[in-house]
């Protein structure tokens, strides 16, 4: 045998008896060949040597009852075909704090917090290795050049398979994770991971978790059969997923939160147990050519002011809405395709916003539904074969252009109470209801559009509000081409082309409208009236002081209206308001209801709410701010302009600089004076910052003469909000869970990060996540189990 080949054997007289002794006696670069056997020792690799099993994989085992089984104290070393087993609960089996350790075809078993740990200047190169640990993690890396894992298999982990933390960096290729009680991959701190062609199956927590400032670049990373979330992305670092997939997970397929802005390309989510993709907490990012299919809940949900961009997104077979936008989120969709949802194809509610271009919706209950003070701009929309309306707008605003709606089970386009609908260059064909209906309380316009082949009227106007119909064609409908059922002068019809309809048109004068109502075929369809906004205001959780202030204002406006009707002068009133308080205290909701009440009193023409923030008012070029501010203000005429976080206009924040914010303030002051009787402006934000905002312009304090303080919700009120969410979504909260929530809400810090009502709603959503994971493991689940949230569903730290 060569001079640099050293034997280790348990047979006396044939070489070293211990591997450590062989390392100590070997020259640098030596090959140490180990005969089969179990070697009880703590091996310190103090020289650059290679250690290999003489008879191949699995024939040599290094055992350590205490301490580290294998550690490195040299520039480089290598193990090949060696099994390492540690039973020490306080130390890793393999520890590399300096130098490089190569592990090839090794089996590594740990019993402590990690099997392999690379820190400091350490680096591990692992190929074709098996890693197990029934108590802790597989591989933990905090080293800046932590190394490479290639074709490695992680099984039966007590916590997470691979953890990259602090300033660690790691590359994974062609690895697999099977059965980890924690995460398959966990990144935090400023950790960096590049991972390709890897599979993760059967994790107890999110299969992939990227948090804090961590960075990940993943290609062909596949997740399946996780109990909870597939990908949890909550990092401010760059996250890029290419051709990745999630299948059969218990909660969200992909959950993006905490301002994370990932980039996803060619990714797929299938058969998730809750939402397919969920954006929360002001997150964003770009999704290109992605697919979501067969999820048990909402396909894609964008909420909490998130602003992602989607291009070529496909959503199919969702048990609820295909896409939902809520809570002031403002996404952008281009080339969206939604097929076969059990609920609405696309639903925008709770003040959601958004822009959609080239959207295809097929099947579902309603194609596009806009409700709850939301506003959307959509062009190139195609809706086919819905069970109810093709497009539905209630108490919201929609600008719809260049679109086609075919085969709706109800109205092609339905504008309900409080809707502001603009339809331009659209075609509606073959609706079972009206081609387009404006119900009582709806307003808007229809331009250059065609309504044909419907089972009822082509256009039906049941409202006394302003509607303008211009250059439209109505033909071959089973009712009238256009029918106005309420006499009045607010309806304007210009250049109407009508032919082949089974009933005559009726519009324009009170006489024709009365005749239409007397015709058996012209009986108006019953319309559900909206709830009383004043009653809804009084029914809100908490806010006793706010309710008193707003009710006082409403009464003052009511008396002012009566005095005007009696020919008397109106008393001085605080028309424009400041809503001061922390986020999530109901400021937007109260503003919306206040506008509706003023509209009922005749103080405002429409009472709609237009919500804006700094980005909606401030431009990035000289002169652009005045234009943007004027445009936003004009859309609010007749209603309420709600300026969220108004103090940012005077704080000099944002890339446009302080002068542009002050330009917006100056423009607002002038517009408020010019239109003082036709709009209510409400500026909202934190109490201290709003005081500074009022001082930023000499005319500001005189315009906003009344401030209403929104206090934080009490712990009891936050529990009530959770109970309200339970009732809204068909859940029940048992008393033990309610007690746990009460203790949690009493203890939680009420600092600048506290979200009030949003915090309560987020706690509810996480409880439903945990309930889904809990029930997924049960052998039998009753209908009562599906609705009950228990103390087990509270997160650690809440219980």
From TrEMBL:
Q: Which SUPFAM superfamilies match?
A: P-loop containing nucleoside triphosphate hydrolases, Pectin lyase-like
Identify the residues that the record assigns to the AAA+ ATPase domain, covering every copy: 573-714
The reply on keyword Cytoplasm is no
Question: What UniProt keywords are attached to this protein's entry?
Answer: ATP-binding, Nucleotide-binding
GO MF annotations for this entry?
ATP binding; ATP hydrolysis activity
Give the superkingdom in one word.
Bacteria
Say if the entry is tagged with keyword DNA-binding.
Answer: no
> Which family, according to UniProt?
Belongs to the CbxX/CfxQ family.
Q: What is this protein called?
A: AAA family ATPase
């Amino acid at each position: 045998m060569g001079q640099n080949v050293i034997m280790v054997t348990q047979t006396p007289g044939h070489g070293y008896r211990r591997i450590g002794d062989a390392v100590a006696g070997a020259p640098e670069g030596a090959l140490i060949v180990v005969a089969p056997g179990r070697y009880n020792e703590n091996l310190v690799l103090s020289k650059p040597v290679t250690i290999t099993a003489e008879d191949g994989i699995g024939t040599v085992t290094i055992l350590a009852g205490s301490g580290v089984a294998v550690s490195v104290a040299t520039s480089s070393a290598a193990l090949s075909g060696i099994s390492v087993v540690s039973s020490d609960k306080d130390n890793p089996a393999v520890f590399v704090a300096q130098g490089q350790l190569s592990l090839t075809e090794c089996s590594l078993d740990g019993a402590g917090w990690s099997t392999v740990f690379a820190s400091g200047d350490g680096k591990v190169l692992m190929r074709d290795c098996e890693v197990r640990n029934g108590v802790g993690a597989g591989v933990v890396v905090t080293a800046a050049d932590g190394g490479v894992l290639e074709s490695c298999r992680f099984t039966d982990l007590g916590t997470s398979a691979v953890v990259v933390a602090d300033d660690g960096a790691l590359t994974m290729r062609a690895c697999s994770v099977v059965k980890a009680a924690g995460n398959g991959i966990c990144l935090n701190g400023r950790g960096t991971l590049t991972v390709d062609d890897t599979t993760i199956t059967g994790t107890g927590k999110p299969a992939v978790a990227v948090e804090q400032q961590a960075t990940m670049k993943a290609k062909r990373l596949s997740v399946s059969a996780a109990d909870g979330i597939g990908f949890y992305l909550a990092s401010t670092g760059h996250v890029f997923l290419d051709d990745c997939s999630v299948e059969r997970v218990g909660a969200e397929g992909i959950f993006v939160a905490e301002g994370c802005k990932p980039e996803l390309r060619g990714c797929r989510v299938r058969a998730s147990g809750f939402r397919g993709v969920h954006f929360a907490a002001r997150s964003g990012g770009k999704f290109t050519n992605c697919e979501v299919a067969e999820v048990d809940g909402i396909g894609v949900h964008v909420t909490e002011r998130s602003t992602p961009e989607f291009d070529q997104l496909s959503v199919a077979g969702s048990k609820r809405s295909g896409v939902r936008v809520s809570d002031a989120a403002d996404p952008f969709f281009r080339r969206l395709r939604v097929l076969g949802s059990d609920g609405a194809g696309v639903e925008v509610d709770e003040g959601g916003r958004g822009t959609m271009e080239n959207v295809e919706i097929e099947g579902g209950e309603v194609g596009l539904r806009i409700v709850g003070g939301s506003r959307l701009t959509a062009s190139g929309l195609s809706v086919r074969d819905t069970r109810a309306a093709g497009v539905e707008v209630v108490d919201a605003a929609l600008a719809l252009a260049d679109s086609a709606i075919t085969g709706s089970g109800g109205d092609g386009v339905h504008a309900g109470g409080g809707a502001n609908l603009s339809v331009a260059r659209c075609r509606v064909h073959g609706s079972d209801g009206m081609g387009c209906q404006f119900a009582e309380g709806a307003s808007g316009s229809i331009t250059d559009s065609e309504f044909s082949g419907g089972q009822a009227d082509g256009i039906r106007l049941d409202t006394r509000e302003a509607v303008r119909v211009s250059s439209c064609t109505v033909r071959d409908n089973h009712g009238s081409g256009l029918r106005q059922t309420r006499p009045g002068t607010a309806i304007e019809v210009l250049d109407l082309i009508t032919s082949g309809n089974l009933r005559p048109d009726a519009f324009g004068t009170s006489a024709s409208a009365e005749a239409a109502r007397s015709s058996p075929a012209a009986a108006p369809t019953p319309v559900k009236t909206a709830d009383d906004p004043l009653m809804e205001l009084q029914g809100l959780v908490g806010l006793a002081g706010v309710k008193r202030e707003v009710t006082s204002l409403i009464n003052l406006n009511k008396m002012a209206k009566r005095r005007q009707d009696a020919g008397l002068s109106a008393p001085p009133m605080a028309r424009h308001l400041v809503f001061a308080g922390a986020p999530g205290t109901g400021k937007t909701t109260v503003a919306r209801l206040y506008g509706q009440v003023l509209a009922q009193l005749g103080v405002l023409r429409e009472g709609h709410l237009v919500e804006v923030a700094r980005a909606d008012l401030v431009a990035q070029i000289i002169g652009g701010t005045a234009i943007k501010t004027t445009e936003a203000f004009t859309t609010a005429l007749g209603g309420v302009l709600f300026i969220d976080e108004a103090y940012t206009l005077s704080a000099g924040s944002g890339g446009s600089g302080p002068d542009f914010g002050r330009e917006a303030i100056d423009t607002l002051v002038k517009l408020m004076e010019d239109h003082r009787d036709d709009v209510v402006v409400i500026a909202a934000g934190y109490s201290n910052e709003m005081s500074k905002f009022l001082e930023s312009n000499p005319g500001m304090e005189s315009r906003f003469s009344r401030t209403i303080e929104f206090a934080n919700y009490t712990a009891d009120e936050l529990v009530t909000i959770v109970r309200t969410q339970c009732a809204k979504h068909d859940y029940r909260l048992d008393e033990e869970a309610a007690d746990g929530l009460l203790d949690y809400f009493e203890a939680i810090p009420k600092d600048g990060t506290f979200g009030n009502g949003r915090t309560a709603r987020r706690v509810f959503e996480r409880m439903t996540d945990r309930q889904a994971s809990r029930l997924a493991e049960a052998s039998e689940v009753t209908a009562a189990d599906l609705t009950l949230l228990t103390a087990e569903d509270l997160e650690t730290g809440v219980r």
